[in-house]
Amino acid sequence: MYMNKVVILVLLFALLMLSGCNNDKGNNRVNEFVSLEQMANYENGSVTVDGDTVALAYIGQLLIQPDPQQEYQFFALAAFGEDDQTPLLVMSTEDGFLPDFQEIMVNLPDADNGFYCDDNTVEEMASTVILDAKIYSLVGHDCSGSGENTGLTKDIPIVITLSMVVAGTSAIGIVDDKAYLDTEFQLGENLRLSGGLGTRTYNQVFDLVKKHPQVTTIVEGNISGSIHDDINMQTGRLIRISGLSTHLLSTSDIASGAVDLFCSGNRRTMEDGAAFGVHSWSDTEEGIEAGSLPVDSPLHNAQIAYFNEMLGEPIGKDFYFFTINAAPADDIYYMSRSEIESFGILTD
After folding, report:
1. Are strands 333-334 and 275-278 parallel, antiparallel or unpaired?
2. Does the N terminus or the C terminus of the chain have fewer Cβ atoms within 10 A?
3. Is the pLDDT of residue 221 over 80?
4. How far, CA to CA in Å, does 76 sit from each of 86, 90, 101, 124, 155?
5. For 149, which DSSP code?
6. How far is CA 99 from CA 135, 157, 160, in A?
7. What is the pLDDT, as a whole number, of residue 127?
8. Cβ proximity of 224 and 7 under 8 Å
């Protein structure tokens, strides 16, 4: 069971049902997370055109703003390569749910000269890499070419993995002794990439600690939340044991799982103007929302333990229950600075 804390609850993450379905503990498979001493295990997906296979690393939401006066709204899902924000696949689905894969734009070799697939078959399979995970193996049939490929039709095999779904869309930029962490990005004048913190974030922070010892502070920018709470808590623990601080700029806008991550900093500072949002976590597969559970439910225990580690007892537990009762999962409550300080979240 994966819990997710995201501000924009896009239905992509109904794919969380992929987890916990496979009890075959075969020797060839590994746990996603083993310890803070190593990176999380990860399984890329792929798309193959004319025998050439391109790796797919993560999935995010494409949000579009139809009119400058309107808010951004969900448009499609997109799959990306490693360290790239150019969509390799753009996937249209019924109400945002996978695995129906209604329409797929294969942006290879590029968005103007790719392929359009509206006849897709999909097979759900056990992962051969990650324990308790599945993959979607699908084929776009007779995909029609566009641009220079007009007139061509091809069958295009595609593999979507659970790792891609719970990866998150985070990127880290390093400037001197600071690492700037974001998950929301403008891709065009009216097109935005949105996602959250996930397995990629853990691996990015792990890599940061190993390769950039000069970095002392993680600056959280615009982060909508986390798509994978279990791994997000491990990312927080990694930040804590590595001696890193966390900081919010006056322009930072963090919510949900990004608040959890902020609490992991050994020194935690915030400029006036930063947005600090909390709400209840939810498990979309099980139909569970934390704020509706009894206070003695064991489903609270993992996050109570995390916040007690980060903020101390009993204030960590108190803050956890404050967050899940502040707003339901489909809403957000922005805390005032005085509320934040009352829980000892800021160290300076």
Report:
1. antiparallel
2. C
3. yes
4. 14, 6, 11, 21, 22
5. G
6. 10, 15, 10
7. 95
8. yes
Alpha-carbon gap, residue 41 to 46, rounded angstroms: 17
Neighbouring C-beta atoms of residue 205, cutoff 10 Å: 27
Q: Which amino acid is present at 95?
A: D
Pairing of strands 185-188, 191-194: antiparallel
Tokens of 93: 């689905």
Helix (H, G, I), strand (E, B) or coil at 195: coil
Average pLDDT over residues 301-313: 97
pLDDT at 21 > cutoff 60: no
Helix, coil or strand: residue 270: strand
State the Cα–Cα distance between residues 331 and 344, nearest whole angstrom.
24
Tell me how far apart the alpha carbons of residues 24 and 243 are, in angstroms, rounded to a whole number.
38
Domains of the chain and CATH, by start? 5-165 (no CATH), 171-342 (3.90.226)
Share of the chain above pLDDT 70, in %: 90
**Three-class DSSP category at 2:** coil
**8-state DSSP, 130:** B
For residue 325, the SS3 value is helix
Structure tokens at 24: 């075959």
Q: Which of 217, 261, 215, 216 is nearest to 236 (CA)?
A: 261
- Mean pLDDT estimate for the chain: 90
Percent pLDDT > 90 in the chain is 80
Beta bridge pairs of residue 81: none
Residues in a beta bridge with 245: 217
> Residue 94 — very low, low, confident or very high, per pLDDT cuts 50/70/90?
low
Angle in degrees, CA 89, 91, 95, rounded to 5: 160
